[in-house]
Records
---
Amino acid sequence: MRFDSLLDSLGGTPLVGLPRLSPAADVRLWAKLEDRNPTGSVKDRPALHMIAKAEKDGLLTPGCTILEPTSGNTGISLAMAAKLRGYTMICVMPENTSSERRQLLEMWGARIISSPAAGGSNEAVRVAKGLAAENPDWVMLYQYGNEANALAHYETTGPEILADLPTVTHFVAGLGTTGTLMGVGRYLREQVPDVRIVAAEPRYGELVYGLRNIDEGFIPELYDESVLTTRFSVGSRDALRRTRELLEQEGIFAGISTGGALHAALGMAAKAVKAGERADIVFVVADGGWKYLSTGAYGGTLEEAEARLEGQLWA
Amino acid sequence: MAIEVRIPTILRPLTDGAKAVDGKGGTLDELFTDLDGRHPGLRARLVDDKGLRKFVNVYLNDEDVRFIGGLDAAVADGDSVTILPAVAGG
């Protein structure tokens, strides 16, 4: 495969079967390897689509400054694209994210503004909105509410999955900005009768939920509950266990949020087996494990790894 | 046996600091009413006249109750209920 530039190589990622983790001949699991994108994560799709849209709308012009609240991957994608297209990139990131993410962002020339660990990404969003108001010339693409995020998946990820696996019955992905699930979910619902769209939401340690008031919660503007069939909360123990199983049994070295999606996918697979139904379950490998090596997720016992992740944003 | 309900940090002032409390009932609605008897004010923080409050997420055995009947979701002894505020990911 040949492309004019790195940006042009976006998408077209492999869909690989999991012969060992699939529970039956007619209940199969498939991994969509989104780590095979320009900066190594699924976030390259929304990031590059949001930039292209903003350029087309005349919102982004050479020399502009982009501001974005991000726990890492979206910022990394935007930083790479910003460098190539001549923008300054500023990320607002919670301080409790892995050191690899910071190093990568700095490598691509992004400036990082840290937001407090308590409150997680809620705080990053709040700080970024404040900065955007103070600096009206900065362009906040705002992944949580930018339609181009979901549209990237509606136009690319969804069609790729259906073309590779016309018999797909389930789509499972992590829930963050909700862009992947909204975009792929809408596309598959239009094309595949009775397709099941399943969200795996990371459940962090208590620090991340440390809001002052329960009315200060956050729901991404992109989120539309009616696109989903159901939604599971997956704790760090289950996510770590599945991340390791994926590595040991299928050889796939993935980030921790992928373990969360696999956990939900295996739950749907067990349900299909019990009901005697056939299933082709696609789940998203959002990124590789490289950025999480320093968290100790892959070594020692599960208990030790879980303790090390306490208070960290791992998805 | 009872139903274990895990309480988020911000609501623990209502449970004397307890991280988890036990309750009973046949539906989530009945369970919250039962808990409110021992922890007055808890129900009002979770439910308003339209149902579950917007920024409150409740999971029954890790599944979001909004997809399995909401307040009418059937619960039984041995189930685990987790209450969490809605937070941003990504």
---
Amino acid sequence: MGKIFLGLLLTLLMAGCNCCPDMQDENAVYYWRTEWRLDSLEQGFLDSYHIYKVYCRYFDVVIDGPDTEEPHPNATISFIDTVPTDLEIIPTVYITEACMHQPHEGIAEKLVKRIVQMNETHDVMGVTEIQIDCDYTLQSRQTYYDFLEEVRRVAALHQLRLSTTIRLHQLSMPAPPVDYGVLMIYNTGDPQKFEERNPILDLRDVQPYLRYLGDYPLPLAAAYPVYKWLRTIGGVHITHEVEADEILRVKGAVEEARDDLRHTILLYHLDANNIQRYDNKTFDAIYRH
Amino acid sequence: MTTKHLMRFIAISCMLSCHLSGFACTWIETHNYYLFHVYDNERFRSRVDRISRDNWKVYLGSTEDYYYFNAKEVKDFARKKGDDLMLSYVNNLERYLQCAQDVVAESWDYPSKEDVAKRNRVINSILLYAQGKLTSRLRSQHGLLFMRCNMLLGKHSANITFWEQTASKYIESVYKEMMKNIYAGALYKTGQTGRAAQIFAEQGDWESLMTQFYLKRSYAAIRQEYLRDPNSAALPFLVQDFVNNTQEAVDEDGYGKLFVRDISTREAEQMVQFAGQVVKEGKTKTPALWMTARAWIEYLLGNPVQALAHIDEALKLDGTDWMKNCARVIRLYIHSSQYQVSSQFDTYIGTELAWMQQMSEQTCESFYENALDRIVHQHLAEKYAKAGRIETSLGLLAATHAYEYEYALDTLEVHSLLSFIDYFNNPSANVLDRYLKPRITFDSFNLDDLIGTKYLRLCQWDEAIPWLKKVPMSYYNSRGYAIYAARRKPDVEPWIKRQWLPMGAEYEYAEQHMTVNPKITFATDMRDREAQLATLKGRAYQQACYDLAVRYAQASFTGDCWFLMRDGKSECDEVRANETDLNAKTVDLLRRASQTTDMQLKERALFALSYAYLNPDRWFESEWNRNTSKYIIKPQSNTLQYNAFATLAAFEQTNSKGVSTYVSRCDEYIQFCKFYKK
């Protein structure tokens, strides 16, 4: 009887989250700067919202010239402060789409090796996962997925899981070979058409992709923007930031389309200015855990 | 096409895209340059770099204009000279530079803890070497090397001690200045930010100051710094930053701001009060700085009367040359806005603009040119134009080298242009004229073509032709629009066939070889057709109306032959001052043509009347539906295009000859019929 009950319980639990067995209820944040240094406000924010997981950009991978050149690391983070031991760091690497125009032998291995070395040199402990971020397209998808396969294989040798970012336009493609994806719910608009839509986030730009969410065959976390984008176009200074209501509207629509996207929530990105941009009510509504 | 002409074409295209201030997606040149500028712009970094290079040049006896440090060259020279100390210094400098490069290098091989330790051992050995040479002939260079090594190792306290006990007593040199900068960095890293800021400011290291104050810039920070030291070297930086942020907040024009700080009116008012208090207290050695800041913020907040009084007062107060010059520029701006045009005003403006020109040449700073731009575009050009002094207004625009000058010349009435040319050719009458005339150019225009084209825009064909005949074909073949002029014809019905250029042709810049001036051909044809129109009746008259309509539509800014009337094209174009509304003429002629009983001509005329470019208000509006993620089409039955389509649809129902394919294949018409039938 006990076994039957346990079996039934497990079945019910599995059924309750059949599309995302790996995603847990947790809050996380991206750290996207070139120096690791947390101020008291940022540390307080992590404490207040029970954030123990930080997706920390370690470096970018870029390619300078034509496709014959080899990709190389750029803008590597400097560890000014020690990483607190109570934080789980997920080393994240942004790789430009141009690097994926053709395969580059050995890059996956170099990338994982560099991450592992950075962890060792700077005593970043307890790393169990890495993430790759790339704005791959239909043309570069296969090369990117092959690259991810290789990264996953090498990462496994170091007992590291692999995740990747998924942009909305990538939802219509087959899922990448990773353990899970982080759905980037920002940079949704066309930066050229900034007069019409907020290029960071606009529900009208998200809406067309919602239909792909339900059947997307990969566990997903959701990442929302809290950043401000400053740029100069033709000598004119342009500032973009998203209103709290719009973030929450999008979040509502996204979770309605796929219920399990309410489990793991990330913000892009941790910074004192971003923390001060919105009130506690907004962060409470976004995180909820 | 030459580069110059291409640029002209692009400039005019941009110009045309910029003049509609109300259009949401156009970019407007705001001329909002900062007027509060109280210190030299030459950065610390560029200054020490320049002097260091000069020192190496002197050592090597080099005559190169720009000397790039080359360690091997210096070592060879030192060896030849038997200068062992220099040889060992450069050897160690090279080792240091390699280590510094490794620290910031980006390679796949990330350094291990052992690598970092090894690198630190090398740095320590250089440090020990340098320490041993601190009493040598090259003590300053070695002192700098010593401090650089400490900096890489994070030994900031050691650098503070070394500077305070030793290096600060060295003779003045660029190396000492760099050491002091590292010392300031060490103070900053160890939390002694006030002293660090003082040194950064004294040295003009604005990058470091900005790093230090980036998130702390405010009235409160200025007050705090003043209370710490009323003559703190950081104050001009902080005050300038605050005032310019205030200007940024006031100047905001809907495009947002680059700056971190939004200065509120309250904070700006607090600053005004505080600046007054600082001057009254008499502790500052530069009251001109504070009084100018006060006057400028008052002006920005909409208090020009107080601003006038205070800026006049600022000019009498003590301050650096930069501060006094800044006060003089702001005074010119405020006076330009507050006083009426008069001969006295002319003399004042002429004198001040000539002074600004002189300062601009002396300092090689863009500040004076930018100030001129703001003063002219925000006050003087309009003020003189309103006073009926069009020539002065144009001359001022010309002095700023801004696109508005070319735009103004392009849209000026013909007689005003002729007056302006006369003004340019006649002797100067006063100080202002003497300043302006050397700055007026007609480089971008062939004046004969411009005058002829202005007559074309007014449909005064006979007046246009003699001017256009003076222009050589080489001029037209080299225009940016020549590629269009050589390929497009004004007798093609634009509503039936668009004259697209082959893909990429616009960007090939191929030289054109037209032998006939397309503007003269057009003017002659239009003159003859209009003369003939008066003699025709019935079917022939209606056909002639239609043919004329085709040509007017093509020559319009929305037509394919826009180059007949304009130098460039933009989607933001509209009918401008001093030109005929050619689309309105087209519509009038098409209506007359549509009265015909000839079914084919009637169909063409009715179809033409529904052409999008002749109907600025479309027959429908679309609205985004969030739920369906689709646009909802909402017909607008009160628009001209709706009525034109409705008339065409009604006609086609009775058209015994059957609907022509150019109508039946028109997607807009098909779409309309779907809704019209409902």
